[in-house]
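Allow me, if you will, to draw on your knowledge of protein folds for a short while. The matter concerns a single protein, recorded as an amino acid sequence and a row of backbone structure tokens. Could you please explain, in whatever detail you think fit, how the structure tokens follow from the sequence? I remain grateful for any guidance, and I place the record below:

…
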Amino acid sequence: MAPDDKNRATAAAILPLVGGAQNVTSVAHCMTRLRLGLADRSLVQDEALKALPAVMGVVEDDTYQIVLGPGTVARVTPELEAMVAESHPDTGPQPETPVAEHTLTAAELAAQGAAIKEARKAKNATPFKLFLRRIANIFVPLIPALIGCGIIAGINGLLINLEWLPSITPALAAIASGFMALIAVFVGFNTAKEFGGTPILGGAVAAIIVYAGVANIEAFGQKLSPGQGGVLGALGAAVLATYVEKWCRKWVPEAVDVLVTPTLTVLISGLVTIFGLMFLAGEVSTGIGTAANWLLDNTGAFAGLVLGGLFLPLVMLGLHQALIPIHTTLIEQQGFTVLLPILAMAGAGQVGCAIAVYKRLKHNKSIRTTIRSALPAGFLGVGEPLIYGVSLPLGRPFITACVGGAAGGAFIGFFSMIGDKVGSTAIGPSGWALFPLLDGNKGLGLTIAIYGGGLLVGYLVGFFATYFFGFSKQMLVELNAEDSAADTAADADATNPAAPEPTTRPTAPEAEPARA
């Protein structure tokens, strides 16, 4: 099947399972997830969706999110958008969800994971966390450009170090740096859009921050610098512009609205930005960079342990979104964020945990099938299928996965403490997918070795912590019960329940594996 046909087929398979085109109110995507706004959540067939070969899992938050993985999601989304735009009513009966005959299979774990996510969604619906989601919605659309420019910057750095293609490296530097030089404009555009203003006005006000002419302006007794305040200043400027615009729309007569509102919005917000926000946001941005460097320089191993160990719980609480502007600010200031490689160790602990679960649950074919299907994505940093389908609903393995992440984070933090910083030139990827984006204050080879060592430590500690401490005896008995039922049926007359298993013994039916 041609790639386009495959992506179209995936979209066609997904659409009826989310209630059809009439039930879809919005379509968007991030790095790995197809994000759908739905009119009626009850029309979604979760288990049937999870059973689709292309679907790695589902996550319910403010939107219904289907995990398809990097690359695939960017190709399936436009196909689904086209189908929704056609607005064909859904015809034909919906496939029924198979019912699991055993209680502790992957399907049951996925149901438990869904219940946990539902409860988490209700707890996360606080004003502060909703605000963080809006912040994430501003920065997530920028991630593809950050990744592309980051990889080009890495290639250019390698060429410069090897003294290859000297006539090409200046062009690559321009390509890699152009987006970062104007990122404040894109942040302003997205901010105004997210907060209900006119996007282009948000971008216009944010553009003041990167305009070279601000170097001739003095504020708080100091000359301003182009780019001062960075993305934080752009964020504040665009939010201010949105509120000024809304005020103008309310009070300015309609006859002159088209002239007065944009003018007042840009003028008032621009003056506040120049004579207030740029300086204040610049001080905050400098403070973030200083704090991150101090933390890793002085408490590297401990800081890495805490960050790596707590990142998964932060994700569960929805607080990880607050880190996105911090990452972007560090990339603006230093060329890379030193926090992301440490946080990526949480995924390494998750992978090690999943392998240990696979080894311990030798008789649970359903869970083992789920792990086999989700593990490759886990190595590439897509952790949702393993988190929501395996470790989180099991409970204790989720904790031991965090232990693995803490160990990997401590490893990288230790090297940062002795002066070998490891950073990422972009945000979004994790796991093995982060290797092309690595950068640091030493040679690339050493940077790669430290990050690779951290992954290995995370895998090993996550594995052994889960293998030895992730299960109680009762959990092992219950979770290995899939074949136990078959043992009972086949050996009903046996007096010794521990007798060897007959080779012709029937096996118990399996539930549909859940790829979550």
The two ends are 25 Å apart (CA to CA).
